[in-house]
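Same chain as my last thread, 127 residues:
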Amino acid sequence: DVKDDLTKAKFINPPYEGTSGSETNTITLGSYVFYVYFGNDGTKNIMTICSNSTCTAFADDNIVSYAEALDTSIDGITDGTAGQVIGTTTAPSYSSATWVATFSTAPTASAWTSSTVSIVYYFDAKR
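reply #2:
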């Protein structure tokens, strides 16, 4: 249970928001709130970042800019189609209660657009 593991870890600066007992899997950047889930793509560990709790779509070009900035900072290029950071147009299976999101098979990578539904970060391996 990712939520249980993270909230009981007693981080000084936790990777989630809220107070004890009412934590949420969100992170706020400027005026934007992003939902962060951990899980796998069927074989590799991933962190999935969405602009809403159901990973249905990016809301606007500013959110696309955040995705591009993350992609550039980790992969050195902004394309969403290769490297450790990719864009997807397929929503993962997720649990808001446990902060877990999974794909049954590796998601198809796509370029950053307002049709992107999530950022997938392969934090321990390339795709």
